[in-house]
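Incident log entry.

Two folding requests arrived from the same account within the same minute. Monitoring flagged them as a possible duplicate submission, but the sequences differ. Recording both here for audit purposes.

Request one:
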Amino acid sequence: MRLAPGDTLLVATRNKGKTAEFRAAFAALGVKVADLTEFEGGRDIPDIVEDGDTFEANATIKARTVALATGLPALADDSGLCVDALGGAPGVYSARYAGEGATDADNNAKLVRELRAAGASVPDDIAGGASEALSTARFVSCLVLFKPDGDTLSAEGTVEGIVTGAPRGEGGFGYDPLFWLPSHGRAMAELSVSEKNAISHRGNALAKLLERLGAPGADR
C-alpha cells in the first residue's frame, strides 16, 4: 500500500491529541491528516458498532466504515490493557470494563478489585520495584489503514509492565496510574508526554505502520 504526497488521510477519531500525533507522523510522507471533527462529511458517517473480539477487528470496523462513507483512506486504532492474571481481560473491553459509561476511576477500581479477589501477585524479582504488584500485563494498540478499494494495512504495538494496586502519577489517562514500568521505575502516569510517546503501544504501532508505508526514518 502507498499514500501519495498531498493525499488526505481521515483518522477515525474526535480526539485532538491523537490527531496531532498522527498529523506529525504522516508529515514525513507529505500526507494531510484530518479527523472526524474537521471533515465536512463527518456527520454522514454511520454509527460505528465496535463488536469485534480483537483489537484488529474493532480497528478494521472503524477504518472501513469511515473509508467507505467518505471515499478517503481512513486510519483507526483500537487499544486496551491485557492482564495476564485475568486471562487477558479487560482487553477489547478496557474502556467499558466497569460498564457502559464507566469512568477511568471506575475501571481502575474494578481491575484492582478483581485482581485482589483472585489473589494475584507478582514475585519481587519480576515486580521491578512496584508496590503491591498484582500481575504482569501489556498495553496493546492495533492500527488499521483502510482504503475505499479494500486495500488494508495493519500494525500492532505493545508495551510490557506490571499492574499494581497502588496508583501513582497525575498524567496520562485510563489505566496509566496502575501500570508500572520496571524499565523506568515509574508508573505510566508519571512519565512526561514525550517519554510516554517514545515507548507507548500506539507509538510502537505507528512506527511499524509508517515503516511499511515507506516513511523515511520511521523504523525504531
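Request two (distinct sequence, not a duplicate):
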Amino acid sequence: MSMLIESVPEFAPEKRWMSSNKATVIRGLLAFALVAAFFVAGFLVTFAVADFQREQYFEVRKFQAAAAAASIEASDVEALSGTESDIGTPEFDRLRQQLVRIKNSDSRIRFVYLMRPQDGRMIFLVDAENPDSPDYSPPGQVYFEAKPEEFKPFEGEKSPDPWILGPITDRWGTWISANAYVVGEGGLPVALLGTDVGVNRALSSFNQIKEIGIVFTVVGSILLALVLFQWILWSHNKDRRLAARLAMEESMLELNQQLLETDRLKTEFIESVSHELRGPVTAVNGAMQVLDQHLAGGLDEDGEKLMDIAKTGTERLVGLVNNLLDITIIEAGGVAIRREKTDIRRLVERTAKLFGAVANEKGLELETSFSREDIEAYVDGEALQRVLENLIANAIKYTDSGVVSVEVKASEDELDFAVSDTGRGIPERFKGEVFEKFSRLHLTTDSRERGAGLGLAICKGLIEAHGGTIGVESEEGKGTTITFRIPRSGPAETSGGPPDRSSLPGT
C-alpha cells in the first residue's frame, strides 16, 4: 500500500499533462478544419455569386436588346436599300435617332447598329456613331466577322430570339454583344440590332465581386483563426487567457492599420456588391441573436462573456460594413441623388423626434427652429435624413449637458442647416481632419462612444453629391456647430416638376 501511495505523485501529473496536450491537439485539428471549411466555402460562394451576377447581367442585356428592337418600325428598315443612298432619307434619319437614344440610355453601351444579310453577306444599315468618328460604319459596309448562325433566323431556319455573343474580337476591339432581331409582318427578321459593351467594362463588376469576396474570405479566415487560436489558449491554460486576449487585441489593431493602408489601393465598388455583403453580415448578426436565445442559461460565466463579446462585435460589424460600403460608393461617384419634392420642416422634425428619447436620457434639450413655416425643396429625402441623423447622433454623443439644436434657414435658391451643441467641442489639432475617413475627433475609452470615424465623411459625400457644401465651427469645451448648404432644386427642376430619374443608375 505504501508503494502505491508513493507512486501517485510520480505519474498522475504527467498523465494529466499528456491528456491536456492531447485535448489541445484535438482542438487544434478541429480549428484547422473549421478555418479550412470557411476558406473553401468563402471561395465557392464568391465564385457562385459572381457567376450568378454574370448570368443575370446577360439576361438583362438580352431583355434590353429585345425591348429596343421591338421599338423599331420594321417598315422603316424595309424601306432602306442598304447603300449610302439611304443617308438623308426620313426612314434612315428616324432609325438613326432611335439608335442614338438606345445608346444614350445606358452609359455602358459603346456601339449600337442595325445589320441585315444582303447578297450573302451581312451589311450595316444604320450606325449610331457620329459619321465623323473613325468607328462609323456607313450603310452597305460588310461585317465580315458575322457567324453563319446569324443568317439562319433571316432564312426561317432558327427562331429570332435575342442572344448574347462574346467575348468576341473584331476590327473595333473585344466586345460582349447583346443582339435582337427586328421582326417584320411575316414573322421573319428584317434586321439585326446589335448593342456592344467593351469586355473589360462588362466583366469588371464580376471580377470585382471575386476580388472583394476573396479579400473578405481571407480576412474572415484570419479573424476566425485568431478567435479559434484564442479559444485553444484559453482552454489549455486559463492563467494565460488575459495575455492571449491582449495579444489578439494588438494583432487586431495591427490588422486595422493594414486595412487602412490597403484602403489607398482598393478598386471601385459597384452598387450590386453592397447587397451581397450586407446579406451575410446581417445573417451572422441574426444567427448570433438566435444562438444567444437558444443558449440562454446554458452557458457558464465565461461563456456568457464570450457570447456578449460576439453579439456586440457582430452588431458593430453590421454598422461598419454598411458605412464602409456607403463611403466607398460615394468616393467612386456611384451615389445617385434622387430629388423629390420634400417637406423640409416635416423631415427635420421627424428626424429629431427619433433622438428625443436618447436626448432625454442624457438630460439634454433637443430643439428645432425654422426661418419660415412652410419649406419645400427638391432634395433626396433619404440622403438628407441620413446626414441629419449622423450629425444629431454625434451632437448628443459628445454633449453631457445643455442643448442640441437644429436650425433651418431657407432662401429662394438654397437651404442652410446648422446642427449645434454645447458639448466638448473639437480639439484644435483635429479640426483639419474633421471630414476625413477614420478620423476620431475625441479620444475616449468608453465603448459606447467608439466608432469607425466614417459618419462625417459620409455626410460630406452626400452633401457634395447634392451640389452643396459643409463646414464646422468649434471651440474645445464650448460646443460645436456643423453647417451645410444645399440647393433647393437641381438642374432637372427648371420645368417646375420633379427631376427625371430615367437616367439615374439603378432605374
